[in-house]
Amino acid sequence: MPYALYYWPTIQGRGEFVRLALEAAGADYVDVARGSAAEGLGMPALLQMLERDALARPPFAPPILRHGKLVIAQTAAILLYLGPRLGLVGKSEADWLWAHQIQLTIADMVDEVHDTHHPIATGLYYEDQKSEALKRAQAFRTERIPKFLAWFEAVLVANPKNQAHPAPPTHHPAVTTARSPHLIGARLSYVDLSLFQLVEGLRYAFPRATNRALQNAPRVAQLADAVAHHPRVAAYLQSPRRIPFNEQGIFRCYPELDG
Q1: Structural domains of the chain sorted by starting position, each given as residue range(s) with its CATH number in brackets
Q2: Exposure of 28 by Cβ count < 10 A (0-12 exposed, 13-18 middle, 19+ buried)?
Q3: Contact in structure between 19 and 78 (CB atoms under 8 Å)
Q4: By the number of CB atoms within 10 A of the CB, which of 47, 54, 206, 235 ranks highest?
Q5: pLDDT bucket at 1, cuts 50 / 70 / 90
Q6: 242 neighbors 11 (Cβ within 8 angstroms)
Q7: b (16+ CB within 10 A) / e for 200-213
């Protein structure tokens, strides 16, 4: 039974964390809103999913996953469901809960990224709150990026399965996921994929600040580079299914916000 992912068709956004898990696992899925309305897909299908009278347990917003009769919203909840089914998390309940905690922390940082360009209200344009965005972005660059990346680095250091993978020098070439550190256990998990997407987004939106912070988080950089070379992920990144970063999504490149 294929998975049906409902998300906006022109941005990566929060739906990209789910897409990466489905792609890395080689799962059978449909990106509903990017399909043809003539085939019952496209934006009409997404908007119908958001009609509150259509479901007894309506989602608030995309991303939404439908699998059979089950409908799940919220990125972290979707990945909590998909992880064991796609082989992208360990088999123990402790691993599931730890992965969920890490994913929620990633979600916290994603929210802070969004608030750098929309610090006052989502209903206002960036240009309407630019002065506030400049202040918010400065604090994010100097305080929050280093703090979050330091925590992910600490998680990688604390994982006993990573002891065979010492931190590389900053000029170290990319390595495969088999030789890279992992957030949980010794194999690729959905939180590794999500951390990759977070780092990619930060490199796009705040390239200078992110590169500085990654100097002190070499294992995070190593993991992100290795995920990009995972065979299925690499194929996805080169395919038209991967929507480019743009200034309508969460990660936006406004050079003035990078300091």
Answers
A1: 3-86 (3.40.30.10), 93-230 (1.20.1050.10)
A2: exposed
A3: no
A4: 206
A5: confident
A6: no
A7: bbbbbbbeebbeeb
Question: Taking 90 as the threshold, does the pLDDT of residue 39 lie above it?
Answer: yes
DSSP-derived letter for residue 184 is S
**Which amino acid is present at 175?**
V
Task: Identify the residue whose tokens are 């439908």.
Answer: 66
- If phi > 0 it is left, if psi is from -120 to 50 it is alpha, else beta; for residue 248 that is alpha
**Two tokens, residue 98:** 């730890």
**Cα separation, 130 vs 213, whole angstroms:** 24
The tokens describing 122, both together, are 């989502």
Q: Is the pLDDT of residue 54 over 80?
A: no
**Residue carrying structure tokens 């992110």:** 210
Query: Partners of 6 in the beta sheet?
Result: 64
